Structures are given as C-alpha cells and as structure tokens.
Amino acid sequence: MGLRLVLTTAAFVSVGVAGCGSDAAVQVDTSIEVQTSQPGTAAPSGLAADETAGATGGEAATWTIDPGAVVTAATRSFSVLVTRLGCADGVTGDVLEPVIVTDANQVVITLSVDPLDPTLDYTCPTNNANSLLVHLDEPLGNRSLVDGACLGESPARQTSACETGAVRFQAPS
Q1: Which are the contacts of 53, defined by CB distance < 8 A and separation ≥ 6?
Q2: How far apart are CA 50 and CA 28, in angstroms?
Q3: Per-residue CA distances from 77 to 4, 16, 129, 133 (Å)
Q4: Torsion of CA 44, 58, 92, 143, to 10 degrees
Q5: Most buried in the list 69, 94, 142, 160, measured by CB within 10 Å?
Q6: Phi first, then psi: what are they for 49, rounded to 5°?
Q7: C-alpha–C-alpha distance, residues 54 and 1, integer Å
Q8: Which residue, 94, 101, 113, is CA-closest to 8?
C-alpha cells in the first residue's frame, strides 16, 4: 500500500503552529515500516517512524492540514502547511523529499527542509509556512494522518507545534 507525496510549487503563507492536533487522546503506533512509491526513498525495512525523522538529510519541519482542505475517507489529495522547526529568520525554505510510513490505521508523514548555512546566525521569529500538495495512491480510508516530527525523540515533540499530539486528522471510528 504505497503512498505518493508530490511537491508542487510552494506558496508562502504566514500561519501560527500552536494547536495543531485533535482534541481526542489518540495512540500513535510508531512501530510500522516505511513504504513509499518513490524508488530509493524508503528507509530500511523495520525502521520505526521516530527513526526516519532525519532520513532525508534535512532539518526538522512540522506540518498541519491546510485550513481550506477537506479531508475525508475518500480523500486522495490534500494540502498541508509545512513550517521549519528551527530559527531561520522567519523563512521555512524548500521542503525535501518526504518520508511516509503507513499501516492499516495511520499514515505518518515526516517532512524536513533544506539545511541552513551553519556559519550564519539566524533570528527566531515564527517561520512562514510553505504549502505542499499531498497525493495519495489510494483513498485515505479510515486511517489517521500523523505528523512524524511529533513522534519519538524528535526535537519538535516539546514545541507548541506538537503540544496537542501528532495526529493531524483522526479518522472517524
């Protein structure tokens, strides 16, 4: 059950990242294996979601479902807003190839962004959000959408972007 994420031309939108989850307490399974439809982008088999966070070689980013997006069981594509976690003078930058982890209950999407020049100093205003269109190879069904940056030992776990949890869309029971 491969899923495909397609990057489109980024549109820059200024948004806050607090309150990016569901009100319901949800258990997120991080022991699922990575499966992608892009050859050469899958992490080694058996790698848990929290272990794939840095697999793209970029810097941590969180995502939320675009407020204008409608996500249902029949959804095959939807827009997300991606925000760099670290200080970057308010700029998120280019989104790198995603890591997608799936099982029968959830789709975990972990995104990262181009690394910054380590020789420069950056201020810490809230970074802008880049719009990213997600295309699924099959309908979402009754699976939840989960931000992989909020799982495991990720630096994002203790930020406002993840304070309400990793689930960005809870499938109806």
Answers
A1: 60, 99, 110, 112, 148, 149, 151, 152, 154
A2: 11
A3: 10, 23, 19, 7
A4: 10
A5: 69
A6: -55, -40
A7: 23
A8: 94
Query: Which tokens in the block code for residue 7?
Result: 């990057």
Taking the chain (173 residues) in runs of 10, the rounded mean pLDDT of each run is 35 33 40 32 33 64 96 92 96 89 89 94 95 85 95 91 95 80
Q: φ, ψ for residue 149 (rounded to 5)?
A: -70, -20
* Joined tokens for residue 8: 């489109």
Kind of pairing, strands 129-135 and 99-102?
unpaired
Phi-psi region of 163 (alpha: psi -120 to 50; beta: other; left: phi over 0): alpha
The Cβ-side half-sphere exposure at 51, using a 13 Å CA radius, reads 13
Tokens 């095959």, residue?
Answer: 76
Distance CA 163, CA 156 (A): 9
Q: Helix or strand or coil: residue 155?
A: helix
| Cα angle value 150/134/41 (rounded, 5°) | 75
